[in-house]
Structures are given as C-alpha cells and as structure tokens.
What we know:
By secondary structure, this protein is an alpha+beta fold. The protein has helices at 15-20, 25-42, 95-101, 121-138, and strands at residues 46-49, 53-62, 68-78, 83-87, 105-106, 110-113, 141-142.
Amino acid sequence: MPMSENKTKASGLSPSAFLETVEPAQRRRDGEALLGFFEDVTGFSPLMWGPSIIGYGRYHYVYDSGREGDFLATGFSPRKASLSIYIMPGYQDYSDILSRLGKHKLGKSCLYVNKLDDIDMDVLAELVQAGLKDLDRKWPVHPA
Length: 144
C-alpha cells in the first residue's frame, strides 16, 4: 500500500494576495506584520503552503515508517479564531522562552496567539530561531 502524500504542499499562490483576503481587519494587519517579521528573522522568503499557511524555509523528513516528504520549516496562518504560528519540531523544549512570550496557547507544533499585541515580538524571534536551529539538527532546513 503506497504512503499517502502530505495534503499541505507549497503552492504558487501569493502570500500578500492571500493576506488581502483575511478578515477581520486586525487579523489581516497582524498577518501583514508577521509576513515581514518572519522574513527578517529567518532570512527566507515567504511561500504559501496550501490555501492558508505562509511558510519560511523547508525541510525534507524521513520517518522510521518510511514516510517522507517536504514541509515548511516555520511560518504562520492568520486563522479566524487566532494566529497560528508553526515551529517544527514542536515547542516541548522551549518552556523558558515561552514563559517570557506573553499570552498564548500551545498545540503540538503550533502556537496560538489572539493578537500580536499580546506577545513580546523579540521573544517570538528568539523562539522562531531556536525552533529552526533544533529542526536543522534533525533535518536540514533550506530556502523554500
């Protein structure tokens, strides 16, 4: 039986054009701020992954099961309920940084923030850089 492919793949969509469609206006403004923030912090250009994730960098993974593929190294999505910020391979080792971040919730590899005013952007930059460094030790990170 063949392995299934990732549903979330890099696309040719424009991150800026996508952000123009985001509602409400505050979520769109936060998304626009994150667009430049991630580019500055990572040194990578933004690329759409699927219809709603803006990613920076990519890595190729191979699991013990044999499943392999490519995925964004870090990025965000301005979802209706909150901003989703993606750090691979997850936040489990970042409790010191997270304790200084500000108001947020955690998922496995996702940080949820209601608005950028709730968090310290310098601490977010530290978190993104730590996540990329940790990911690069496991699977090399490349420009998208």
